[in-house]
Amino acid sequence: MEDEKTQFLTELKELLAKYNAAIYDGDGTCVYIEVDGESLRYSTDELTAISSENVFEYDKDWYV
After folding, report:
1. What pTM did the predictor assign?
2. Measured at the alpha carbon of residue 47, what is the angle toward residues 55 and 15, in degrees to the nearest 5?
3. pLDDT single digits (tens) 20-33
4. Per-residue pLDDT, 63
5. How far is CA 60 from CA 6, 26, 27, 35, in A?
6. CA angle 51–52–55, rounded 5-degree value
7. Residues ≥6 apart with Cβ < 8 Å to 1
8. What residues pair up with 32 in beta bridges, in sequence order?
């Protein structure tokens, strides 16, 4: 049986592939989740971690 870390990474890998997505660090002040060419920006000044509770709290006024 796989451990939880392996299960999580496997599911994340499948989601990233399914939605042609990536997660990356901006310039040290933000984190981006890119989904099929559209980026969602999360300011690290206001957010310390992206979680299930706050995943919709991206910078809605910011556009690529």
Report:
1. 0.77
2. 30
3. 999 998 888 899 99
4. 62
5. 32, 16, 18, 15
6. 70
7. none
8. 24, 41
